[in-house]
Specification:
Layout lengths: L2 H9 L3 H23 L2 H18 L6 H22 L1 H41 L2 H12 L4 H8 L3 H33 L1
Helix pairs in contact: 2-3, 2-4, 3-4, 4-5, 5-8, 6-8, 7-8
């Protein structure tokens, strides 16, 4: 099941899709929480609670990276709250884990940036002309070859290549513009 099908299944409330996301991501989140708080049992509780919050909001996500970002953020915040509540161990654990948390923050910043960038790309893809959008989705969402797309849509391979090239050019222009805006704002305000 590709990422787009996962999002569509979650939006429809398909619990089988939720179970698949849970089965795929739970071990990673649990290990992540375990590394931060050094308590496997509490890490399991925190991870389950993160998935409970995700379940309540599962229909709100537009892309798979956004789901991962949400789950990791909820888990991280719960771990930090847990550490704060552990007064006797607080200083030791925070000192031991501070570098790890800083690295995780960098990871989340990158993941957040990628999720925002993907959101822009998805929006721009949906603005493409109908045939161009079909070709783009088959090529990049479904991983079809140019030949497979040509056969499916009854187009020549050169027409398929042209649609892909045009779509990528339009998307690149918007993405570059957004990146330049982010750079300008970060330089101006920070």
């Amino acid at each position: 099941m590709d990422k787009l099908e996962i999002i569509q299944g979650l939006k429809k409330g398909d619990d089988r899709v939720f179970d698949m996301v849970f089965t795929t991501l739970f071990p990673h989140l649990w290990r992540y929480a375990s590394r931060i708080i050094n308590d496997e049992t509490e890490a399991e509780d925190i991870t389950l609670e993160a998935f409970a919050k995700f379940y309540d909001r599962r229909t709100e996500f537009e892309n798979y990276e956004g789901i991962k970002l949400f789950l990791y953020t909820i888990t991280r915040n719960a771990c930090i709250s847990y550490l704060r509540s552990q007064t006797a161990q607080k200083n030791y654990i925070v000192n031991q884990q501070s570098e790890s948390i800083i690295e995780e923050e960098k990871f989340f910043d990158t993941l957040d940036y990628q999720a925002n960038l993907l959101e822009i790309v998805y929006r721009e893809v949906n603005k493409l002309p109908r045939q161009c959008k079909k070709v783009f989705k088959l090529r990049f969402y479904k991983d079809y070859s140019y030949q497979q797309i040509a056969e499916k849509l009854k187009l020549s391979e050169s027409a398929v290549r042209s649609h892909v090239t045009n779509a990528l050019q339009k998307i690149r222009i918007v993405v570059r513009h957004k990146e330049m805006l982010v750079i300008f704002l970060s330089l101006y305000f920070f």
